[in-house]
Amino acid sequence: MDASLLIIGAGPGGLLAAWAAAHRHLPHGVLVVDRMSTPGAKLAVTGGGRGNLSHLATEGEFAAAFGRFGRFAIPAFRSLSPEAFRTLLSRIGIPTTVDPDGRIYPRSQSAPQVRDALFAACQHAGVRFAFHHGVETLSPPKTAAAPWKVDSFSTRSVLLAAGGQSAPRLGSDGSGFALARSLGYEIVPPVPALTSLRTVETWPSSHSGLSLPDVSISISGKPAASERGEWLFTHRGVSGPAVLNLSGRVARRLLSEKEVRIHLDLAHGTPDFRRLRQAEGTRTLHSWLARQLPRALAETLLDLAGIPKDLTFSRLSAAQEKKLAEHLVALPLTIRGTGGFDDSMATSGGVSLKQVDPSTLEGRLTPRLHFAGEILDLDGPTGGWNLQWAFCSGYLAGMSAAP
Ligand SMILES: Cc1cc2nc3c(=O)[nH]c(=O)nc-3n(C[C@H](O)[C@H](O)[C@H](O)COP(=O)(O)OP(=O)(O)OC[C@H]3O[C@@H](n4cnc5c(N)ncnc54)[C@H](O)[C@@H]3O)c2cc1C
What is the pTM of this model? Predict the structure, then answer.
């Protein structure tokens, strides 16, 4: 027997699982196998290298951040809450800070340092590592007492923490989904999430680099969705936190629809045109709009609404008022693509939650196989939620896999 527990993937999920399991002193120890040359290649670049490791939240807020199936994450959250995780990190020499929005970072502002400390803690606890090994086959035990075969390794239990499909250059290339599928697990079709969106309209690219601090965006139809926050125009479309947080849902729609319409609310509600007519009568719409929005965007907006730049409020017709209001509160954009997996920070979709027990993260189809992290069909917004999920699910799965 090569190991009591073999973990596929040395990302945040796999490292926490290994660390937790190693403290159970299993007879054949814990072995972590990864296709990359180092552990936590993705972890080391998170948060722009600063590592937004977690988010201070109650379990209700945590579940809500993960949407419709968020309650699945509660047992993992209870096993390692953000506060408990901060204590764990400080014990291994990584004190943390919390920003005003609740985002947790290492005090050193160094994600590579977090990765190194977790790796060292695992080694100190006796975990063995095999790098440069991409697992290709998983064979379940033939009898209750028989071991699992993982390529040529034999092990009592397996923990699949191979991540999703995002940023494959950092290790997670979707091969974990293929391994789970080979055992009969249903894979909810993976799509890129936390990624930019490509617009059919070309006008956004003429504002490339321009950001708006607070806009609302929505997609109508079923299921409807909306996000509020910062928005960024790029050379191929749109990005920024509000777009990133909506992108997974747009990408899923694009699996069955050629195009998805999103609407942008730049004004947070229709302006009071009657009051504006009285107060701003002789002022041009452009000069008023340029006080609400960047000047160039104000000009584009008037163009799109078909309103002359030098029109004054006193000459604004009812039809023009309606058009302008529509463009301010529901500016339509047509999305035909996303930044793709290469440019995404998370994967939406993965191993179906129906086939995994949330209280242990053990698969329901096979004995002694656990899951952790992004390989499961759960993804959250930007802000440290995805790493918190990877860490706490790794912790719970590691504890459950090493009774
Ligand atoms: C650029 C970027 C920035 C991000 N910033 C943040 C942030 O600041 N905060 C946040 O919360 N989230 C952030 N995320 C998301 C976060 O990094 C992931 O959600 C998290 O890393 C998932 O952890 P994981 O352990 O499940 O998977 P991964 O971190 O993807 O680890 C999976 C591991 O499995 C290995 N592997 C895969 N297949 C195999 C195989 N067949 N055989 C052997 N090994 C295999 C991979 O090499 C990899 O090491 C960011 C993501 C990216 C891409």
Answer: 0.96
